[in-house]
């Protein structure tokens, strides 16, 4: 087992550190910066269906659902197609409205999650086109789909998903870029810019991983917290949800993710000097807004940990602790910003003495409903 873990204490840590390579593998053979193009056969075959689609419905569970939520922002922005993000378990039982020609994208690491599988089978009966995004080649969801794209993150052993998530984001971003460009809702200039930003991601992830000692020290400082709040806006909102999920899964600390502006409608009532609030506050079009959200928390004596963009000179004066990540376009930023949150959850779980590879009550894939 020690050999399988490649010298790491846990599979989860190994998989977190593999991400520069796994993200590269997701992009490889698809993203061609030199020629300014993306090649994805499954998408090309169904391009006209994407272009004609009146709506896209995304179905997934768990971490994959967070990838779907991020993709909603990408597809609406780049392709101008309305997107609905559904928990597969809710979608399958409520007799959803599906019209022939609707696109249903199923996102699943294992390709075996029972709720997601049944959801697409139902949608197929209603005439939807199923596009699967799976990590496991030949899995049930991959086989039940009309077309799809694999994430190519390699086998994921850790129960808490890490590298599969970043691979999903990379693949979803490429699809949104490709469809948006073909559809004409995205300029060549923006297409090339995001393409370039995506190509830079693996190197930037490497840089973030080099900060593991800093993140571990922060983790140890907050390891005894009872609750945690994670906040973000825009593309960083799903990142906040995913950070909170990671913490719950492996440290058993109650954690909630929220849109930062929505906190004043509830969670702010919980803020006191005991509560750590993690802000995903990298520089994007919402930056000023999130800075004022941080002020609101500090005014109530909450403890603030912030993921910021390198060179940010404002937030470090307000936050108790900061983790800086390289600057990136906001659309690819989630791939980077989730990395420190994965490490934070990991080190908190370890500091609390838990076996993070075998979190209680959780299964790697849930093949029963
Ligand atoms: C389980 C796993 C999660 C995963 C979810 C969906 O709950 O513990 O890590 O995100 O299933 O799995 P899938 O394989 O469909 O992505």
TrEMBL record:
Example of a GO cellular component annotation carried by this entry: cytosol
Catalytic activity: D-fructose 6-phosphate + L-glutamine = D-glucosamine 6-phosphate + L-glutamate
Purpose of the protein: Catalyzes the first step in hexosamine metabolism, converting fructose-6P into glucosamine-6P using glutamine as a nitrogen source.
An annotated GO BP: UDP-N-acetylglucosamine metabolic process
Subunit structure and binding partners: Homodimer.
Record-listed E.C. numbers: 2.6.1.16
Location(s) in or outside the cell: Cytoplasm
Domain of life: Bacteria
Keywords (A to Z) from UniProt: Aminotransferase, Cytoplasm, Glutamine amidotransferase, Repeat, Transferase
Residues of the full protein shown: 250 to 618 of 618
Name of the molecule in the record: Glutamine--fructose-6-phosphate aminotransferase [isomerizing]
Source species: Thermoflavifilum thermophilum
EC supergroup of this enzyme: transferase
UniProt GO MF annotations: carbohydrate derivative binding; glutamine-fructose-6-phosphate transaminase (isomerizing) activity
Catalytic site positions: 364
């Amino acid at each position: 087992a020690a050999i399988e873990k490649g010298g790491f204490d846990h599979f989860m840590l190994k998989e977190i550190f593999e991400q520069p390579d796994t993200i590269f593998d997701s992009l490889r053979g698809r993203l061609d910066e030199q020629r300014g193009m993306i090649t994805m056969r499954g998408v090309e075959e169904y391009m006209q269906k994407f272009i004609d689609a009146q709506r896209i419905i995304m179905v997934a569970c768990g971490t994959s659902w967070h990838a779907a939520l991020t993709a909603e922002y990408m597809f609406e922005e780049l392709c101008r197609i309305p997107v609905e993000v559904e928990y597969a378990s809710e979608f399958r039982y409520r007799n959803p409205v599906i019209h022939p020609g609707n696109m249903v994208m199923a996102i699943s690491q294992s390709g075996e999650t029972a709720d997601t599988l049944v959801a697409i089978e139902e949608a197929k009966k209603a005439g939807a086109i199923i596009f699967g995004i799976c990590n496991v080649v030949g899995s049930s969801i991959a086989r039940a789909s009309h077309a799809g794209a694999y994430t190519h993150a390699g086998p994921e052993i850790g129960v808490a998903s890490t590298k599969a998530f970043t691979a999903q984001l990379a693949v979803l971003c490429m699809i949104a870029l490709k469809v948006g460009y073909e559809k004409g809702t995205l300029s060549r200039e923006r297409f090339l810019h995001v393409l370039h930003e995506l190509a830079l991601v693996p190197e930037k992830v490497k840089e973030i991983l080099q900060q593991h000692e800093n993140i571990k020290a922060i983790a140890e400082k907050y390891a005894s917290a009872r609750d945690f709040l994670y906040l973000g806006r825009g593309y960083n909102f799903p990142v906040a949800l995913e950070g909170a999920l990671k913490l719950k899964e492996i440290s058993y600390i109650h954690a909630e993710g929220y849109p930062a502006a929505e906190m004043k409608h509830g969670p702010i009532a919980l803020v006191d000097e005991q509560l750590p609030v993690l802000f995903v506050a990298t520089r994007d079009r919402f930056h000023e807004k999130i800075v004022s959200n941080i002020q609101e928390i500090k005014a109530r004596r909450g403890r603030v940990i912030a993921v910021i963009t390198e060179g940010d000179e404002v937030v470090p004066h307000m936050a108790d602790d900061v983790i800086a990540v390289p600057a990136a376009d906001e659309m690819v930023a989630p791939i980077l910003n989730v990395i420190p949150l994965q490490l934070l959850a990991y080190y908190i779980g370890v500091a609390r003495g838990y076996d993070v590879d075998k979190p209680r009550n959780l299964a790697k894939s849930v093949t029963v409903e």
